[in-house]
From TrEMBL:
InterPro entries for the chain: Phage_sheath_subtilisin, Tail_sheath_C
Location of the Tail sheath protein subtilisin-like domain: 84-227
Similarity comment text for this entry: Belongs to the myoviridae tail sheath protein family.
Protein name: Phage portal protein
Transmembrane segments: none
Length: 357
Protein backbone atom coordinates (compact mmCIF):
# COMPACT_ATOMS: atom_id res chain seq x y z
CA UNK A 1 0.00 0.00 0.00
CA UNK A 2 2.92 2.35 0.57
CA UNK A 3 3.13 5.48 2.65
CA UNK A 4 0.21 7.90 2.97
CA UNK A 5 0.32 10.68 0.43
CA UNK A 6 1.24 13.39 2.91
CA UNK A 7 4.36 11.47 3.99
CA UNK A 8 5.43 11.08 0.38
CA UNK A 9 4.97 14.76 -0.39
CA UNK A 10 6.90 15.92 2.67
CA UNK A 11 9.66 13.42 1.87
CA UNK A 12 9.80 14.77 -1.67
CA UNK A 13 10.07 18.34 -0.38
CA UNK A 14 12.99 17.30 1.84
CA UNK A 15 14.68 15.33 -0.91
CA UNK A 16 14.61 18.29 -3.28
CA UNK A 17 15.43 20.98 -0.70
CA UNK A 18 19.18 20.84 -1.24
CA UNK A 19 18.77 20.82 -5.01
CA UNK A 20 16.42 23.81 -4.84
CA UNK A 21 18.84 25.68 -2.60
CA UNK A 22 21.61 25.37 -5.19
CA UNK A 23 20.01 27.89 -7.54
CA UNK A 24 17.75 30.77 -6.56
CA UNK A 25 15.63 33.28 -8.44
CA UNK A 26 16.37 36.98 -8.82
CA UNK A 27 13.61 39.51 -9.55
CA UNK A 28 14.58 42.81 -11.15
CA UNK A 29 12.57 45.99 -11.64
CA UNK A 30 13.72 48.22 -14.49
CA UNK A 31 12.57 51.56 -15.81
CA UNK A 32 12.98 52.02 -19.55
CA UNK A 33 11.71 54.26 -22.33
CA UNK A 34 11.73 51.61 -25.07
CA UNK A 35 10.04 48.53 -23.60
CA UNK A 36 7.72 47.44 -20.79
CA UNK A 37 6.37 44.17 -19.42
CA UNK A 38 7.63 40.93 -17.85
CA UNK A 39 10.48 38.74 -19.05
CA UNK A 40 11.87 35.47 -17.71
CA UNK A 41 15.49 34.60 -18.47
CA UNK A 42 17.49 31.50 -17.57
CA UNK A 43 20.93 32.53 -18.85
CA UNK A 44 22.86 35.72 -19.52
CA UNK A 45 22.91 35.12 -23.28
CA UNK A 46 19.14 35.64 -23.35
CA UNK A 47 19.45 39.26 -22.22
CA UNK A 48 20.31 40.57 -25.69
CA UNK A 49 17.68 38.33 -27.30
CA UNK A 50 14.76 39.20 -25.02
CA UNK A 51 15.78 42.64 -23.76
CA UNK A 52 17.65 43.94 -26.77
CA UNK A 53 15.43 47.00 -27.07
CA UNK A 54 16.06 48.34 -23.57
CA UNK A 55 18.93 50.63 -22.65
CA UNK A 56 22.49 49.31 -22.49
CA UNK A 57 22.86 50.09 -18.78
CA UNK A 58 19.70 48.13 -18.01
CA UNK A 59 20.94 45.17 -20.06
CA UNK A 60 24.28 45.08 -18.24
CA UNK A 61 22.48 45.37 -14.91
CA UNK A 62 20.53 42.20 -15.72
CA UNK A 63 23.66 40.42 -17.00
CA UNK A 64 25.45 41.09 -13.71
CA UNK A 65 22.78 39.16 -11.84
CA UNK A 66 23.75 36.00 -13.75
CA UNK A 67 27.36 35.99 -12.47
CA UNK A 68 26.19 34.33 -9.26
CA UNK A 69 28.60 32.67 -6.86
CA UNK A 70 28.89 28.85 -6.61
CA UNK A 71 26.12 28.74 -9.19
CA UNK A 72 24.39 31.34 -11.32
CA UNK A 73 20.76 32.02 -10.39
CA UNK A 74 18.26 29.51 -11.73
CA UNK A 75 16.48 32.34 -13.47
CA UNK A 76 16.08 36.09 -13.50
CA UNK A 77 12.61 37.58 -13.79
CA UNK A 78 12.55 41.14 -15.09
CA UNK A 79 9.64 43.55 -14.98
CA UNK A 80 10.08 46.77 -16.95
CA UNK A 81 7.97 49.85 -16.27
CA UNK A 82 7.96 53.04 -18.30
CA UNK A 83 10.37 55.78 -17.25
CA UNK A 84 7.35 58.06 -16.88
CA UNK A 85 5.98 55.96 -14.00
CA UNK A 86 6.19 57.85 -10.72
CA UNK A 87 6.34 54.69 -8.58
CA UNK A 88 7.19 51.01 -8.82
CA UNK A 89 3.72 49.87 -7.76
CA UNK A 90 2.92 48.23 -11.11
CA UNK A 91 6.00 46.02 -10.89
CA UNK A 92 5.49 45.25 -7.20
CA UNK A 93 1.90 44.22 -7.89
CA UNK A 94 3.18 41.85 -10.57
CA UNK A 95 5.72 40.28 -8.21
CA UNK A 96 3.03 39.60 -5.60
CA UNK A 97 2.12 36.52 -7.66
CA UNK A 98 5.64 35.44 -8.65
CA UNK A 99 8.00 33.17 -6.72
CA UNK A 100 11.49 34.60 -6.27
CA UNK A 101 14.26 34.86 -3.69
CA UNK A 102 15.79 38.34 -4.07
CA UNK A 103 14.34 41.50 -5.56
CA UNK A 104 16.27 44.57 -6.70
CA UNK A 105 15.15 47.95 -7.94
CA UNK A 106 16.43 49.79 -11.04
CA UNK A 107 20.16 50.49 -11.44
CA UNK A 108 19.50 54.12 -10.50
CA UNK A 109 17.28 53.16 -7.54
CA UNK A 110 16.85 56.24 -5.38
CA UNK A 111 15.82 56.61 -1.75
CA UNK A 112 12.12 56.90 -2.56
CA UNK A 113 12.13 53.74 -4.68
CA UNK A 114 14.22 51.81 -2.16
CA UNK A 115 11.79 52.79 0.60
CA UNK A 116 8.85 51.71 -1.56
CA UNK A 117 10.41 48.29 -2.14
CA UNK A 118 11.41 47.94 1.52
CA UNK A 119 7.88 48.71 2.69
CA UNK A 120 6.45 46.20 0.22
CA UNK A 121 8.88 43.46 1.35
CA UNK A 122 8.03 44.05 5.00
CA UNK A 123 4.31 43.91 4.24
CA UNK A 124 4.65 40.67 2.29
CA UNK A 125 6.69 39.02 5.04
CA UNK A 126 4.20 40.16 7.70
CA UNK A 127 1.52 38.34 5.70
CA UNK A 128 3.49 35.08 5.77
CA UNK A 129 5.33 35.32 2.45
CA UNK A 130 9.12 35.23 2.21
CA UNK A 131 10.49 37.68 -0.39
CA UNK A 132 13.79 39.43 0.25
CA UNK A 133 15.44 42.43 -1.40
CA UNK A 134 18.90 43.87 -1.93
CA UNK A 135 18.69 47.65 -1.69
CA UNK A 136 21.26 50.46 -1.73
CA UNK A 137 21.86 52.29 1.56
CA UNK A 138 18.57 51.20 3.13
CA UNK A 139 18.74 50.63 6.89
CA UNK A 140 15.41 48.82 6.99
CA UNK A 141 15.96 46.88 10.25
CA UNK A 142 14.50 43.76 8.63
CA UNK A 143 15.73 40.24 7.99
CA UNK A 144 14.14 40.56 4.55
CA UNK A 145 16.27 43.54 3.44
CA UNK A 146 19.96 43.36 2.60
CA UNK A 147 21.40 46.84 3.02
CA UNK A 148 24.22 47.06 0.45
CA UNK A 149 26.40 50.10 1.13
CA UNK A 150 29.77 49.72 -0.66
CA UNK A 151 30.79 52.61 -2.94
CA UNK A 152 33.40 53.15 -5.65
CA UNK A 153 33.05 49.71 -7.24
CA UNK A 154 35.54 49.50 -10.12
CA UNK A 155 35.27 46.92 -12.92
CA UNK A 156 37.40 47.10 -16.08
CA UNK A 157 38.00 50.81 -15.63
CA UNK A 158 34.34 51.64 -14.98
CA UNK A 159 33.13 52.80 -11.59
CA UNK A 160 29.69 51.63 -10.51
CA UNK A 161 27.41 53.08 -7.86
CA UNK A 162 26.04 51.05 -4.97
CA UNK A 163 22.64 50.85 -6.67
CA UNK A 164 24.14 49.70 -9.98
CA UNK A 165 25.73 46.71 -8.25
CA UNK A 166 22.67 45.53 -6.30
CA UNK A 167 21.76 43.06 -9.07
CA UNK A 168 25.23 41.51 -8.78
CA UNK A 169 24.79 41.04 -5.02
CA UNK A 170 21.30 39.57 -5.48
CA UNK A 171 22.67 37.09 -8.03
CA UNK A 172 25.53 36.20 -5.69
CA UNK A 173 23.09 35.50 -2.84
CA UNK A 174 20.75 33.53 -5.10
CA UNK A 175 23.70 31.44 -6.27
CA UNK A 176 24.87 30.53 -2.76
CA UNK A 177 23.85 26.98 -1.71
CA UNK A 178 22.07 26.69 1.62
CA UNK A 179 24.85 24.56 3.09
CA UNK A 180 27.33 27.48 3.01
CA UNK A 181 27.23 31.24 3.53
CA UNK A 182 28.26 34.07 1.22
CA UNK A 183 30.80 35.35 3.76
CA UNK A 184 34.14 36.02 1.99
CA UNK A 185 32.57 35.14 -1.37
CA UNK A 186 34.88 36.66 -4.02
CA UNK A 187 33.79 39.05 -6.75
CA UNK A 188 36.61 38.36 -9.22
CA UNK A 189 35.53 40.97 -11.75
CA UNK A 190 35.84 43.82 -9.21
CA UNK A 191 39.32 45.34 -9.04
CA UNK A 192 38.74 47.95 -6.34
CA UNK A 193 36.18 49.50 -3.98
CA UNK A 194 36.32 52.53 -1.74
CA UNK A 195 38.54 51.55 1.18
CA UNK A 196 37.29 50.99 4.69
CA UNK A 197 39.49 50.27 7.68
CA UNK A 198 39.05 46.96 9.46
CA UNK A 199 37.33 48.85 12.25
CA UNK A 200 35.08 50.53 9.69
CA UNK A 201 34.15 47.20 8.12
CA UNK A 202 33.40 45.67 11.52
CA UNK A 203 31.25 48.66 12.47
CA UNK A 204 29.37 48.50 9.18
CA UNK A 205 28.64 44.78 9.54
CA UNK A 206 27.56 45.16 13.17
CA UNK A 207 25.11 47.87 12.10
CA UNK A 208 23.48 45.61 9.50
CA UNK A 209 25.34 46.74 6.38
CA UNK A 210 26.33 44.33 3.62
CA UNK A 211 29.77 45.35 2.40
CA UNK A 212 32.40 44.09 -0.02
CA UNK A 213 36.05 44.97 0.55
CA UNK A 214 39.54 44.35 -0.80
CA UNK A 215 41.87 42.11 1.19
CA UNK A 216 44.82 43.27 -0.91
CA UNK A 217 44.47 40.41 -3.39
CA UNK A 218 40.77 40.26 -4.20
CA UNK A 219 37.46 41.92 -3.47
CA UNK A 220 35.09 39.79 -1.40
CA UNK A 221 32.00 39.89 0.79
CA UNK A 222 32.58 40.97 4.38
CA UNK A 223 29.90 38.86 6.09
CA UNK A 224 26.51 37.60 4.97
CA UNK A 225 24.27 39.83 7.09
CA UNK A 226 20.94 41.53 6.52
CA UNK A 227 19.71 44.83 7.94
CA UNK A 228 18.01 43.41 11.05
CA UNK A 229 19.05 45.25 14.21
CA UNK A 230 16.10 45.05 16.59
CA UNK A 231 15.98 41.53 18.02
CA UNK A 232 13.25 39.92 20.11
CA UNK A 233 12.79 36.74 22.12
CA UNK A 234 11.44 34.96 19.04
CA UNK A 235 13.77 36.63 16.52
CA UNK A 236 17.27 36.69 17.98
CA UNK A 237 20.72 37.48 16.62
CA UNK A 238 20.68 34.39 14.37
CA UNK A 239 18.11 36.16 12.19
CA UNK A 240 20.72 38.77 11.28
CA UNK A 241 22.45 36.16 9.11
CA UNK A 242 21.34 35.69 5.51
CA UNK A 243 22.06 31.95 5.61
CA UNK A 244 19.82 31.37 8.62
CA UNK A 245 16.94 33.41 7.18
CA UNK A 246 17.26 31.52 3.87
CA UNK A 247 16.77 28.21 5.69
CA UNK A 248 13.90 29.52 7.83
CA UNK A 249 12.13 30.87 4.74
CA UNK A 250 12.58 27.60 2.83
CA UNK A 251 11.26 25.51 5.72
CA UNK A 252 8.28 27.81 6.21
CA UNK A 253 7.46 27.67 2.50
CA UNK A 254 7.89 23.91 2.23
CA UNK A 255 5.74 23.08 5.25
CA UNK A 256 3.03 25.60 4.37
CA UNK A 257 2.80 24.58 0.71
CA UNK A 258 2.92 20.84 1.32
CA UNK A 259 0.35 21.05 4.12
CA UNK A 260 -1.95 23.15 1.94
CA UNK A 261 -1.58 20.81 -1.05
CA UNK A 262 -1.69 17.46 0.76
CA UNK A 263 -3.26 17.84 4.20
CA UNK A 264 -5.58 20.79 4.80
CA UNK A 265 -9.17 19.89 3.97
CA UNK A 266 -8.19 16.33 3.03
CA UNK A 267 -8.15 14.60 6.43
CA UNK A 268 -10.54 14.55 9.37
CA UNK A 269 -9.07 16.34 12.38
CA UNK A 270 -8.61 13.41 14.74
CA UNK A 271 -5.61 12.38 16.82
CA UNK A 272 -4.41 9.73 14.36
CA UNK A 273 -4.30 12.21 11.49
CA UNK A 274 -2.52 14.78 13.63
CA UNK A 275 0.09 12.10 14.31
CA UNK A 276 0.30 11.50 10.56
CA UNK A 277 1.13 15.16 10.02
CA UNK A 278 3.69 15.09 12.84
CA UNK A 279 5.34 12.01 11.35
CA UNK A 280 5.48 13.63 7.91
CA UNK A 281 7.08 16.84 9.23
CA UNK A 282 9.59 14.78 11.23
CA UNK A 283 10.54 12.99 8.02
CA UNK A 284 10.99 16.34 6.28
CA UNK A 285 13.29 17.58 9.05
CA UNK A 286 15.24 14.30 8.93
CA UNK A 287 15.87 14.88 5.25
CA UNK A 288 17.21 18.38 5.98
CA UNK A 289 19.44 16.92 8.69
CA UNK A 290 20.84 14.41 6.20
CA UNK A 291 21.60 17.27 3.79
CA UNK A 292 23.50 19.26 6.40
CA UNK A 293 20.95 22.07 6.59
CA UNK A 294 19.77 21.15 10.11
CA UNK A 295 21.88 19.79 12.96
CA UNK A 296 21.55 16.01 13.18
CA UNK A 297 19.29 14.67 15.92
CA UNK A 298 17.97 18.02 17.13
CA UNK A 299 14.65 18.35 15.29
CA UNK A 300 11.41 17.72 17.17
CA UNK A 301 7.70 18.04 16.34
CA UNK A 302 4.81 17.32 18.69
CA UNK A 303 1.31 18.35 19.64
CA UNK A 304 1.35 21.61 21.61
CA UNK A 305 -0.56 20.44 24.68
CA UNK A 306 -0.54 23.89 26.27
CA UNK A 307 -2.06 25.59 23.22
CA UNK A 308 -4.50 22.71 22.84
CA UNK A 309 -5.66 23.03 26.45
CA UNK A 310 -6.12 26.78 26.03
CA UNK A 311 -8.26 26.10 22.96
CA UNK A 312 -10.41 23.59 24.85
CA UNK A 313 -10.89 26.06 27.70
CA UNK A 314 -11.87 28.80 25.25
CA UNK A 315 -14.62 26.49 24.01
CA UNK A 316 -15.95 25.95 27.52
CA UNK A 317 -14.31 22.60 28.27
CA UNK A 318 -13.25 22.08 31.89
CA UNK A 319 -9.75 20.62 31.63
CA UNK A 320 -8.99 20.55 35.35
CA UNK A 321 -9.43 16.76 35.65
CA UNK A 322 -8.15 15.85 32.19
CA UNK A 323 -4.84 14.02 31.86
CA UNK A 324 -2.21 15.31 29.44
CA UNK A 325 -2.97 12.43 27.09
CA UNK A 326 -6.68 13.25 27.17
CA UNK A 327 -5.83 16.85 26.29
CA UNK A 328 -3.55 15.70 23.46
CA UNK A 329 -6.21 13.42 21.96
CA UNK A 330 -9.18 15.76 22.44
CA UNK A 331 -11.04 17.04 19.38
CA UNK A 332 -10.09 20.59 18.44
CA UNK A 333 -12.53 21.49 15.70
CA UNK A 334 -10.62 22.52 12.58
CA UNK A 335 -7.55 23.64 14.56
CA UNK A 336 -4.22 21.78 14.77
CA UNK A 337 -1.74 22.93 17.42
CA UNK A 338 1.84 21.78 16.96
CA UNK A 339 5.18 22.83 18.39
CA UNK A 340 8.59 22.25 16.87
CA UNK A 341 12.26 22.81 17.58
CA UNK A 342 15.06 22.79 15.01
CA UNK A 343 18.72 23.83 14.90
CA UNK A 344 19.83 25.37 11.62
CA UNK A 345 23.50 24.78 10.91
CA UNK A 346 25.54 27.94 10.40
CA UNK A 347 28.65 28.12 8.23
CA UNK A 348 32.23 28.32 9.52
CA UNK A 349 32.95 32.05 9.66
CA UNK A 350 35.08 32.73 12.73
CA UNK A 351 38.17 30.68 13.57
CA UNK A 352 40.15 30.99 16.79
CA UNK A 353 43.50 29.21 16.59
CA UNK A 354 45.88 29.02 19.50
CA UNK A 355 49.40 28.02 18.50
CA UNK A 356 51.95 27.01 21.12
CA UNK A 357 55.64 26.96 20.18
Amino acid sequence: MGLPNININFSTAAATALERSQKGIVAIILKDANSTGAYTLTKATQVALQLGTIGANNQKYVERAFIGYVNPPKKVIVYVVATTEESLSEALQYFENVQFDYLVGPPDCDTTEATEISTWIKTQRAEGFTPKAVLPNTAADSEGIINFTTTGIKVDGTTYTTAEYCSRIAGLLAGTPMTISCTYAPLPEVSMVDKLSKEGIDTAIDSGKFVIFSDGEKVKVGRGVNSLQTTTETKGDAFKKIKIVEAVDMIRNDISKTAEDSYIGKYSNNYDNKCLLISAIKGYFKGLENDGILETGTSTVDIDAIAQEQYLQSKGTDTADMTEQEIRTAATGDQVFLKSKISILDAIEDIDLSITI
